[in-house]
Amino acid sequence: MKPLYRNLFLLFGVVAIVIMLLSFDVDYRMIGSRMGSALAYLPLVIGVWVAVYACNAWAFQMIVNASDHDKHLDFRHAYKLTVSGFAFSYTTPFGFGGGPYRVMELANHIGMNRAMSSVVLYSMMHILSHICLWATAAALFVVCCYDKMDTALWIAAGIFAAVLLFVIYFFYRGYKNGLIVRLYRLLFYIPYVRRYARRFYDKQVENMEQIDRRIACLHQMPRAFYGSLLMEYVGRLINSLEFYFILLAFGAPVTLLDALFVLAFSSLVGNLLFFFPMQMGAREGGLALVIQILGYPGGAGVGIFSAFLTRIRELVWIFIGVSLVKVGNKALMKQADSADMPQS
């Protein structure tokens, strides 16, 4: 990436941090009453993400190194790109910023098409791990709360299962055949956009098809495909410890299973409202609702308190990610040993 673009990413990250600090909407009296316990558990809340990002970085590293190039992304640099990429995803609408940042950093080493296919593949795997988490939480909820399931809940569970199966099938087809061209062609049906979309498509169709072929190649490498999915899924499970520690800080009688339910539900609500930067408002509402459903005393107050600590954790990691933008870029990727080359 050119130094100018890297400096622009850095400037954007600094501005985003300042804006988020000024836009927090919380009840500071309630936070103050729990500040002692919050400070005690905050290092654990932040520290959980050392392991979460390690799983994410391992998955990203496997995907990048599975491509047909002679470079190798080591774990240290994969971790840097992961933390910085998520920092920009948190601070942009639709989570748009992280993908372009990773692509621009990788493109100088492995080419634009390979960089784009690797980043798209990782984004798909990241979303698929979300789906696996939601499916796990839904199945456990039905098993653990079977005696509380009424007709409405069974209908909701059936609809949710059908939607999950459809989404999983969509991703399976995307991994097997590529999906960039198919998704882009949807723009041909949007008035006022289709003419410009068609013009861009005619110029870039070969590059888009090449990216799709590279996406499909990962499906033919079971070790990289299932290995990266497993690491993303393990990262999701570790992430539930964040809410376990947060609810302990509030004095709630939380279990690990409850923490998994809180993570899954708040994640689902946040992703449904993915167009909000940092999911502002969506996460607070989702946390308050799921904590009330689980029957913890304090209900909405606990939810807002939980959201406050997650915001602090995000700001810490956003600051770290933005700071890493200028670090270790010249040696981002090295020549691969023969043992590291992807198998054809």
Unreliable runs, pLDDT <50, ≥5 residues? 338-344
For the sheet with most strands, the description reads: 2 strands, antiparallel
> Percent helix among the residues?
over 70%
* Beta content: under 5%
**Taking all residues together, what is the mean pLDDT?**
77
Structure characterization notes:
The model is unreliable at 338-344 (pLDDT under 50). The protein has a two-stranded antiparallel sheet with strand order 1-2. The protein is built from 13 helices and 2 strands. It is globular. The relative contact order is 0.17. Helix 1 packs antiparallel against helix 13 (299-323) and helix 10 crosses helix 13 (299-323). Helix content is 76%, strand content 1%. It has 344 residues and is mainly α.
Question: What are the main properties of this structure?
Answer:
mainly alpha, 344 residues, 2 strands, two-stranded antiparallel sheet
